[in-house]
Amino acid sequence: KIFLKLENTQFGNSFKARGANNKMLHLTPEEKEKGIITASSGNHGIATATIAKKMSLPAKIVIPATTPQKQIDAINQYDAELVLYGPDFPDAEQKALELASEEGKAYISPYNDSLVIAGQGTIGLEILEDFPEVEIVLVPIGGGGLLSGIATLIKNINPLTEVIGVQPVASPVWYESLKAGKLIEMKVKETICGGLSGNVEKGSITFPIIQKYVREVILVKEDTIREAVRLLWEKDNQVVEPSGAVGLAVLIENKKRFNSEDIF
Question: N or C: which end of the chain has fewer CB within 10 A?
Fold first, then answer.
């Protein structure tokens, strides 16, 4: 059996609000007064801007200059200060970290933060509450916050459940890093999975977590990801961005391997 965790139905159409909300609820009064800064390839920025507005916090969102206009418009509607910088997420992330240091503001990392990771981990709790017998959980991986949270939760409650990371073959940073036993930087190719592309912040706490709890990262092809997006729309009436469809892409490319397990 295959089950879908439909985080695309969350506000902002992604899971990102879970981690951002948890982090921002733990800000000190002084941090709240100064405001927050974050970097995003899109979805984390939307979630952070939304929550900041609800909490009446000044927010600055740094995103790549190549971010789709739809996501730029979504962030702008929440009155955050938007900074477009660099061609891809690692450039925007570095700029946001510099601004946070210069301005003395709290940085809301999309992944490299224990509170953000804990927020994302609530997905794992919900999976086990509904299907405690689940055998395999396939999780997209970019910076690693989502996979770190889900894997930590699930493996500590049900060690027999296998948690597997998934990323596009065009950006195999985690696949190669786990093989090397350390985070590596590498040149990545263009991919339709913007949220899963690029290198990871040096010293990220996500690496030792994933190294401990995740044995495998599977790479999937661009054409298969497109096919997964199409199938989710045609068969389930779900509008899912490519980064969220990589789990189904794994099943398409590995039908013999995953033909009997209960999979999320």
Answer: N
pTM recorded for the entire structure: 0.92
At residue 58, φ and ψ (nearest 5 deg) are -65, 135
Domains of the chain as residue ranges with CATH: 12-107 (3.40.50.1100), 114-253 (3.40.50.1100)
Contacts of 77 (CB under 8 A, 6+ apart): none
